[in-house]
Amino acid sequence: MEDLRLNVALLRRRVPNLTRAAKSVGLRPATVSNLSTGKIPVGRAEVRTLVALASLAECSLDELIIRGEKVEMIETGIKALDLFAPLTKSGTIGLVARPGMGQLVILAEVFHRLKQQGYQTILLEPEGKHPEVDDISAYIDHTFHSIEEAYEYIAKLSNKTEIVFAADRSHVLKGDIQNLQERLQNIGVDSVTTFLVDLKGEVVDEDLPYGPLETLLQFDADLAARHLFPAVNPIYSTSSILEGAHLDQTHLTIQQRAQKLLRRYRELRAIVNVKGIDSLPETEAPLYKRGELLEAYLTQPFYVAEAFTGQKGETVPLTDALVDVRKILDGVNDAKEVKELSYVGKIQ
């Protein structure tokens, strides 16, 4: 099948308040979000949905649907991200979390790792007082106080270097981010990968909090409460890279098998919490154990947290992570204890 995806950048520019606009024409914001990230393939979308989106963006279907263009992944060495929600290069990545779930820690970690890969890191200072932002300042090359300052600097760099740019949702609501992205596109700058965070924690209550995204990182309150970090939900986090011809088939197969296991594990865990492990049927016990092992394996020591945890940060190449996860799924590690896979790099 021909590789198809939504022109998310065009939607973002043309329809700033997509949640309200989608509802006004009878579309569910969740459907629009899933189409944008690729969770729902464009090829499976209802024609009326695509027509309605094209009408909102005042464009043709040919402009709305991009054919055959490869979306490039940024490999971070963070297992949970690379496996379940790969970062889209030059795309927009939204972090959905309440305060205390570790969104700024993961932002700092990603910036730290990408700086090692030669990226420049830029922060647009959030509105209001947010002292927690000071904790990530060591991983920011440049902080700007206005969107105009950021634009002038990025425009001057042109495409000479890759850039990761972070901003708070307050700038999204004002239209600053859409404006910046449109101006950069107009001068041919396509080297900026944008991270959007919500420092107030209101984003979890919105249907489409940042507008259309290429990558959605949904944080999980249960994982955070059990101190399983990064607390990125491996089932609800997603990326446009996971659809079409953008992802290696082996990666896609393992990712889908892992998600299926984790869904069932979560169902079983609810039973175990009430009735105990002995209440599980013999056929389900191995699935529960593998779910526990996989959940533990997705934790990871971060470089930016070394001073607090006393653990050395770990980078796991995607090829190694895929091998490890496949072994967990196939039962190769059934004899291991959960603590043996907690906060490690690759499995030894």
TrEMBL record:
GO terms for molecular function: ATP binding; proton-transporting ATP synthase activity, rotational mechanism. Gene3D superfamilies: Bovine Mitochondrial F1-atpase, Atp Synthase Beta Chain, Chain D, domain 3, P-loop containing nucleotide triphosphate hydrolases. Residues 246-318 form the ATP synthase A/B type C-terminal domain. Its main location: membrane. One of its GO terms (cellular component) is proton-transporting ATP synthase complex. It is found in: Membrane. InterPro entries: ATP-synt_VA_C, ATPase_a/bsu_AS, ATPase_alpha/beta_chains, ATPase_F1/V1_b/a_C, P-loop_NTPase. Keywords: ATP synthesis, ATP-binding, CF(1), Ion transport, Membrane, Nucleotide-binding, Translocase, Transport. The keyword Repeat does not apply. Belongs to the ATPase alpha/beta chains family. This is F-type H+-transporting ATPase subunit beta. It comes from Thalassobacillus cyri. The lineage of its organism: Bacteria, Bacillati, Bacillota, Bacilli, Bacillales.
